[in-house]
Specification:
The chain is of the alpha+beta class and 217 residues long. 54% of the residues lie in helices and 17% in strands. Strands 2-1-5-4-3 form a five-stranded antiparallel beta sheet, with helices on both faces.
């Protein structure tokens, strides 16, 4: 392929710039056989590094799929909420409990899916988990870096819960749930989020109410 004088000059300029930056070895072997050997070794090194990278990516992808399957098929309803309480993601069990299509639940406020009698309790749950996170941030700011690091990590691992919240479900009987919330910090500077677990406790609630009613009689 013939290059124009300007293209050849540009390639030469870029090559000289790389040499000036130290991107190429200062000295290359004069023996063509030795030079070929060095190039072959370098090629194999790159292939080995690429294979290690591909293997690590395969392991990471398998681990990601495993955790996604655990999240999706867990027997407990899981929802990932933004700090404002908006549903970013949820699993199959949560969809079943809320009795709506998944796409109609995404990007909606979680508080809107509770009976009005339970909205205040749910709001308090979110405030409590956020307050715990803020308190721990302030405490850690006053600590020295690297001091009691493991202890501080355990203190940040706090969850709060609320019992007997009533889920509002279209065209279905409302159910009582226990909600447990935990605020988590995402990696790569992504926004923090709240993980909510909801469990149907309707049978337990009705049994307890029935037992109390019998005792009072």
């Amino acid at each position: 392929m013939n290059r124009s004088p300007s293209e050849a000059a540009e390639l030469r300029r870029r090559a000289e710039a790389q040499i000036a930056l130290g991107d190429l070895p200062a000295k290359l072997p004069l023996d063509p056989t030795r030079l070929l050997h060095e190039l072959q070794v370098h090629k194999i090194e790159l292939e080995l590094q690429n294979e290690e990278l591909l293997s690590a990516n395969r392991e990471l992808d398998a681990l990601r799929r495993r955790y996604q399957a655990m999240f999706e098929h867990a027997p407990v309803g899981y929802l990932i909420l933004s700090t404002a309480g908006v549903i970013d993601d949820l699993n199959e069990r949560a969809v079943e409990l809320l009795k709506r299509e998944r796409k109609s639940l995404l990007n909606t406020s979680m508080r809107d899916h509770f009976n009005p009698a339970s909205v205040a309790d749910f709001d308090e749950l979110l405030r409590a988990v956020n307050d715990n996170d803020n308190d721990n941030d302030n405490d850690n700011d006053n600590d020295n870096e690297n001091e009691n690091e493991n202890e501080n990590e355990n203190e940040n691992d706090i969850s709060v819960s609320a019992d007997n919240l009533i889920l509002h479900r279209p065209r279905s009987v409302p159910i009582f749930v226990r909600a447990q919330a935990r605020r988590l910090e995402a990696s790569d500077h992504a926004p923090a989020f709240t993980l909510i677990a909801i469990m149907d406790v309707s049978a337990l609630k009705y049994a307890m109410d029935d037992a109390i009613s019998r005792i009072e009689k």
